User: Fold this.
Amino acid sequence: MEGDHSETRGKVGDQVMQNPQALAAIQDRLDDVSHTPSTIESLPKSVKRRVNALKQLQVRCAHIEAKFYEEVHELERKYAALYQPLFDKRQDVVSGTVEPTDEECEWQSDREEGEELAEELKKKATVEEKKEEPAAEEDPKGIPEFWLTIFKSVDMLSDLLQEHDEPILKHLQDIKVKFSEPDQPMSFALEFHFEPNNFFKNTVLTKVYKMKSEPDPADPFSFEGPEIVDCEGCEIDWNKGKDVTVKTIKKKQKHKGRGTVRTITKQVPNDSFFNFFNPIKVSSDGEMDEDSEFTLATDFEIGHFFRERIVPRAVLYFTGEALEDDESFEEEELEEGEEEDHEEDGDEEEGDYDPKA
Assistant:
């Protein structure tokens, strides 16, 4: 029982650390505590000196911990090479390149409870088959819409998914995680492999997440392990008229002098999962507005989720089994009145235009 409780506490801790709202609430409480008289203020001067010595030791511990996580990253890279043949086989089955053997397709689940029912259903099916010749069973190639089904099942990903993205993601054949090479800055890349399609020319779309594992000199006690500090996307070579990250709108403009009206068209950004490959950049001075910070934090969260959950356990997200106990990334519902306004396509308000334009 104690092991179950420890595991539960661990899951709750993970949920808190991955939830921006929860972290903000904790920080508020910590700020309140920091303004109350601390225990150390009441200590004799000689004891305070010794506490400072303990803090120096704690800083050294933080640097050792950082080295520990660097070695963990090397272990991840090593074991990624062992996992990869299995993931390659998964891709072959999903795409239909390889047909698994009967032995590979065997899966025992709840056999004891279902044996009697299965036998009864088998007998009933045999009787029905004799009554009517069944139509030929459709045999699609591989596992159709494997990754698209996962995207639509996971809240974090479905929030990014738009209807116009779905035909493109039907061509997604695999997602791979690539770790940085030895002696290179810590990072990992997500590779989205697509079969040839009429939307873009790329066969692989990449997203690189840069990480660091070192205490902040200004706040070394805040170190809790590697963190994502930046990310880079890639350029998508869209075929003409297929770019779903932009949309064309019409706008009426009125001539200042003659009063005549003309209609112009222009392209504006459009909601799409594929904006994932064009992330917000971390500013060099570290100053960002609140919306940008939230967007970037969400991006880091999604990248981590792909790496830690989606890619290693894809089949369980496809079947829905992983969703039953995976509540780490649930988003809070907007309260009434906080819904975002969505501008509809179509004519905008009339505006004057310069006749020389």
Q: What stands out?
A: Confidence is low (pLDDT under 50) at residues 1-13, 331-357. The longest helix spans residues 45-95. The chain has ten helices and seven strands. Strands lie at 172-179, 187-194, 204-212, 227-232, 246-255, 261-269, 351-353.
